[in-house]
């Protein structure tokens, strides 16, 4: 801050307790104002403020503190606010910004309106989410706000410049500033801070009251200590907070009391299933919270997490590996397991963000799911009609599969639901599922141009339809078949080209008859799903990166174990073999209705080819890495009939062409494909992955034949489909390192 003008000239802090004192000392330490003046009713605290160096000057009166200050911050107990506002009113300059640090915001706004008759544009309520059980100016700490959040709740008419200055001041203390409405702030704080404090106070009081000598505490262990730490907080401050945030707190107490009552009855009636369901949902939520705190949540948007891949050129690919479980089958295993009757056990589940989003969504709809632990998941199926209404929107992260399959399933439920996703998913077309679902009787609202979020109205009776799919999409087919489980009569779908048939196979595995007649699959509504066991093979789409890697890198010999070889997924092997790749298929077997094999791949001189159009749906996710294979091949490779690639997690034709161009490889982009002249030198450079997992990994593979280092930006989404990619790549000899965390 020193070289720039500080955001304020003279700041008056009224009330030198822990928060006021810490703010004053942070402003001084980081030079966020010319002068910090303090005022406190307690003369000794005020004097201490000067001698401890917390403030520059002690104001003998409120008048002297406020007059001439361009920022006045009230750090007094919430219930003293109105009186202090009355006293400072005559001295507050028209240009001065007025803020506070209280834990409840509607009471501050109400006090300002009573005293000033209006909420001026320069009043900007604030609340630093920081504190400690210590109080008083001696505990003042200039670092108290570093890495903490500060919430500002400016009104619609707030002065933008004043908001920006106050934000700059708080950011200067090391805090992250968020803005939200007063009402939302008070609701959120009632739930996440006020209620936990109330419960802690109440529990400790109840236990202490039962035992006069408080002997009981001798037997209390760490759990009690952690849980009740906040019961040692300042009683006066908290009594203020509860009285001033009365309405929001009462709402959340009622909600909690009701839920506690449900647990009480579950215990009374020996209802272990309810206990297990609530506890495992809470455990998952708590684990999610821990991950959020350490910046690695699976259902966060990754916008503030930067992961960069640094690739060194060259290397060979060798070893014996198993890539993580198949993403498509992992989604479906949770969906059908949840809707089955009884317990389904899944082995080899992909613990990637996409399939975890599906898992979490079912927990949010009341399904008990144990795990995942090392790919093992146990799902306590609730039957086709046992889902419960989720409490809020279901967040599906980056996963188009989850959103499209869920839309079919949820269109038939008795409750309303809303499906949301990250920035990439929010741009993807959902009209392709919404239109046929509407024809079945579903009521669904989408955002502009059929994009997410999807708002699905519950309680609609669906009727089976026949649908001729205009695009070859397994997601659309699966969506309609899932809706068809609930629809009156027969639902049938005809595909223009074969697409992955995991839904059909898994439904059959769960005892639900799927009639298959050439390109048409149909189900009759009204049946039941049994439970089952599912062994998810390794994902051929993840194996694809290594199939190309070992083919293009000299002196390579790699074995990939237990790879899913469903005939609707093996386009990558067919295409690579046609290009001259040396891939041996070993130990072919069928596990749980899906073909599986081990693959041995060795370096080969690849040739460019015209990719047969019938292979496109069978290799739809593998084209980014196939473009790298084509770049390393001799001669021209032409791809046609692949316009679908433009609406995947990114526009995979354009984004790959741009990335290749950044590395000195020129291609010709067409509306429905690309032409790549093989044999061009892949140079070093920086590539943007546009947060598309498969683009990030494809350029990582390109480094094996590059002449210089490659930097790949925005790689955090690799975790959606391939957790552990970096470690596995390193293990096989790919020269990859990362910057940042995901
Ligand atoms: C998937 C189907 C494919 C594929 C996606 C997974 C599935 O999408 O690209 O990664 O699990 O059904 P489309 O069916 O839209 O082509």
Automatic annotation (TrEMBL):
Entry keywords, A to Z: Amino-acid biosynthesis, Aromatic amino acid biosynthesis, Cytoplasm, NAD, Oxidoreductase, Transferase, Tyrosine biosynthesis
Domain Prephenate/arogenate dehydrogenase positions: 9-297
GO terms (BP aspect): chorismate biosynthetic process; tyrosine biosynthetic process
Compartments reported by the entry: Cytoplasm
Binding site for 3-phosphoshikimate: 327-328, 332, 473, 475, 621, 648
Family annotation (HAMAP family): EPSP_synth (MF_00210)
Subunit structure: Monomer.
Name recorded for this polypeptide: 3-phosphoshikimate 1-carboxyvinyltransferase
Upper classification of the organism: Bacteria, Pseudomonadati, Pseudomonadota, Gammaproteobacteria, Pseudomonadales
């Amino acid at each position: 801050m020193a070289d720039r003008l500080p955001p304020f000239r003279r700041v008056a802090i009224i009330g030198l307790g822990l928060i006021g004192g810490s703010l004053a000392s942070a402003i001084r330490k980081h030079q966020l104002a010319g002068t910090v003046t303090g005022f406190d009713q307690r003369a000794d605290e005020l004097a201490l403020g000067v001698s401890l160096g917390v403030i520059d000057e002690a104001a003998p009166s409120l008048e002297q503190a406020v007059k001439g200050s361009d920022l006045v911050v009230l750090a007094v107990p919430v219930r003293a606010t109105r009186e202090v506002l009355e006293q400072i009113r005559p001295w507050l300059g028209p240009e001065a910004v007025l803020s506070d640090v209280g834990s409840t915001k509607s009471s501050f706004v109400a006090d300002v309106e009573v005293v000033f008759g209006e909420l001026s544009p320069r009043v900007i309520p604030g609340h630093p989410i920081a504190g400690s059980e210590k109080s008083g100016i001696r505990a003042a700490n200039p670092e108290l706000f570093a890495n903490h959040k500060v919430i500002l709740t400016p009104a619609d008419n707030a002065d933008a410049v004043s908001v920006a200055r106050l934000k700059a001041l708080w950011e200067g203390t090391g805090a992250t500033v968020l803005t939200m409405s007063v009402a939302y702030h008070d609701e959120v704080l009632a739930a996440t801070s006020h209620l936990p404090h109330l419960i802690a106070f109440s529990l400790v009081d109840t236990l202490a009251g039962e035992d006069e000598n408080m002997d009981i505490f001798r037997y209390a262990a760490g759990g009690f200590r952690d849980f009740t730490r906040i019961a040692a907080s300042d009683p006066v401050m908290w009594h203020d907070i509860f009285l001033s945030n009365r309405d929001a707190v009462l709402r959340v107490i009622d909600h909690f009391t009701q839920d506690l009552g449900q647990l009480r009855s579950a215990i009374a009636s020996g209802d272990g299933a309810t206990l297990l369901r609530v506890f495992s949902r809470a455990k998952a939520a708590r684990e999610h919270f821990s991950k959020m705190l350490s910046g690695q949540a699976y259902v966060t948007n990754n916008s503030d997490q930067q992961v960069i891949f640094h690739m060194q050129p060259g290397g060979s690919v060798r070893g014996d590996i198993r890539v993580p479980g198949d993403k498509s089958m992992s989604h479906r295993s949770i969906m059908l397991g949840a809707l089955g009757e009884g317990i389904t056990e899944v082995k080899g589940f992909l613990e990637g963000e996409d399939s975890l989003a599906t898992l979490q969504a079912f927990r949010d709809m009341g399904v008990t799911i144990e795990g995942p632990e090392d790919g093992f998941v146990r799902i306590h199926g609730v039957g086709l009609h046992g889902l419960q209404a989720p409490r809020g929107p279901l967040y599906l992260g980056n996963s188009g599969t989850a959103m499209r399959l869920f839309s079919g399933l949820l269109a038939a439920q008795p409750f309303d639901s809303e499906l949301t996703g990250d920035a990439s998913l929010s741009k993807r077309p959902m009209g392709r599922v919404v239109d046929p679902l509407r024809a079945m009787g579903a009521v669904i609202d989408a955002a502009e141009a059929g994009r997410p979020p999807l708002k699905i109205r519950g309680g609609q009776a669906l009727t089976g339809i026949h649908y001729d799919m205009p695009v070859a999409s397994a997601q659309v087919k699966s969506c309609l078949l899932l809706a068809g489980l609930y629809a009156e009569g027969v639902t049938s779908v005809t595909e223009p080209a074969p697409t992955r048939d995991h839904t059909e196979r898994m439904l059959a595995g769960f005892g639900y008859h799927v009639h298959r007649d050439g390109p048409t699959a149909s189900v009759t509504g009204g049946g039941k799903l049994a439970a089952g066991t599912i062994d998810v093979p390794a994902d051929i789409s993840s194996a694809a990166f290594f199939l190309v890697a070992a083919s293009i890198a000299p002196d390579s010999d790699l074995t990939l174990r237990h790879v899913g070889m469903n005939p609707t997924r093996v386009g990558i092997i067919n295409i690579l073999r046609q290009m001259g790749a040396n891939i041996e298929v070993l130990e072919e077997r069928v596990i749980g209705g899906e073909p599986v094999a081990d693959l041995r791949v060795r370096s080969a001189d690849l040739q460019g080819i015209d990719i047969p159009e019938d292979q496109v749906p069978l290799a739809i996710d593998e084209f980014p890495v196939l473009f790298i294979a084509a770049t390393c091949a001799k001669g021209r490779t032409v791809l046609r009939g692949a316009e679908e690639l433009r609406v995947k997690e990114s526009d995979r034709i354009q984004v790959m062409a741009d990335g290749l161009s950044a590395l000195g490889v020129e291609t010709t982009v067409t509306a429905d494909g690309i032409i790549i002249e093989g044999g061009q030198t892949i140079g070093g450079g920086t590539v943007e992955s546009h947060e598309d997992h498969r683009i990030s990994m494809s350029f990582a593979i390109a480094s094996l034949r590059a002449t210089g280092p490659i930097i790949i930006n925005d790689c955090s989404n690799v975790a959606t489909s391939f957790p552990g990619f970096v470690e596995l790549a390193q293990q096989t000899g790919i020269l990859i390192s990362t910057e940042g965390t995901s």
